[in-house]
């Protein structure tokens, strides 16, 4: 399980994006050009409830995933609420993991390898809940909810106009292992197939009989920035190692290229995922 979890805000004295989101929402509502809006009126315009607007403005609980885009639409704020929301989500991660999340949000190319579970960027809420509760069985309901909300929020980058190119290689064990109820795994595999149809996403399965490789031990993500510098993120128990040494990055890129060569094609991988779904029906 990665370091994603609910946590207090950043360093003392640093801006709190969650509170800034609340203040911007209240300010935009009260200073609306046509007339000041009540919470009920804003809720109707944003297709949500008055209680949701109230919780957002008082920083009570998480911000619903779809609300920032709706507020940007209502107030014509050109992505301001979406940016604040992304900052608020990132602020909830442990410090080292925040850098990894920042790199992911700005990446133009994302290469994922996972030998164990579906990567967080592609997890359904139910699958994410199973992953979290399996590793933290004593977590409270609020902690589980916060984890699932934060993880689901990461998918926003896949829907951007300038979405990154994402390449995913999964060990065959990822789609074979049922670490959640069969119906949850069935939906998760279906979501993988749907994501694989995106023009910016390619998903491949590395079969059981593939040869050994450098990246076998841990989930690895290679994130390429707009300046085409690549950073390697290696996830392990409750932390993430970040590697940007040029020689190490080149070695990791070569290893990833070998993975994609040894993996099934995207088309054959989709067929294998669909076949596994049938066994869960």
UniProtKB/TrEMBL annotation:
Residues forming the HTH cro/C1-type domain are 37-58
Name residues in a coiled coil: none
From the UniProt entry, list the residue stretches annotated as the region Disordered.
1-20
Q: Which Pfam families match?
A: DUF5753
Q: Which SUPFAM superfamilies match?
A: lambda repressor-like DNA-binding domains
Entry superkingdom: Bacteria
Instruction: Name a GO molecular-function annotation.
Output: DNA binding
Q: What are the protein's UniProt keywords? A: DNA-binding
PROSITE patterns tied to this protein: HTH_CROC1
- The name on file for this protein is DNA-binding protein
The species this protein was found in: Streptomyces lydicus
């Amino acid at each position: 399980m990665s370091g994603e979890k609910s946590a207090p805000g950043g360093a003392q004295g640093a801006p709190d994006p969650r509170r800034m989101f609340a203040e911007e929402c209240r300010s935009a509502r009260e200073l609306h050009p046509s007339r000041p809006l009540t919470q009920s009126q804003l809720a109707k315009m944003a297709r949500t409830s008055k209680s949701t607007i109230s919780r957002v403005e008082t920083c009570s609980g998480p911000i619903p995933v779809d609300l920032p885009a709706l507020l940007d639409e209502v107030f014509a704020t050109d992505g301001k609420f979406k940016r604040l929301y992304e900052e608020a989500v990132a602020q909830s991660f442990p410090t080292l993991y925040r850098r990894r999340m920042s790199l992911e949000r700005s990446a133009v190319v994302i290469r994922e390898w996972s030998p164990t579970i579906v990567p967080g960027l592609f997890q359904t809420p139910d699958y994410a809940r199973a992953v979290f509760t399996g590793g933290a069985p004593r977590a409270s309901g609020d902690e589980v909810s916060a984890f699932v909300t934060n993880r689901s929020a990461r998918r926003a980058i896949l829907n951007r106009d300038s979405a990154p190119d994402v390449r995913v290689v999964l060990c065959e064990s990822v789609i074979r292992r049922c670490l959640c109820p069969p119906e949850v795994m069935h939906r998760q595999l279906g979501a993988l197939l749907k994501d694989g149809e995106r023009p910016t996403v390619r998903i491949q399965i590395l079969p059981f009989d593939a040869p050994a490789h450098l990246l076998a031990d841990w989930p690895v993500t290679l994130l390429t920035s707009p300046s085409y510098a690549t950073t390697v993120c290696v996830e392990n128990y409750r932390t993430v190692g970040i590697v940007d040494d040029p020689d190490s990055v080149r070695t990791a890129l070569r290893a990833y290229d070998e993975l994609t060569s040894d993996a099934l094609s995207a088309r054959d991988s989709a067929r294998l995922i669909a076949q596994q779904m049938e066994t869960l029906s």
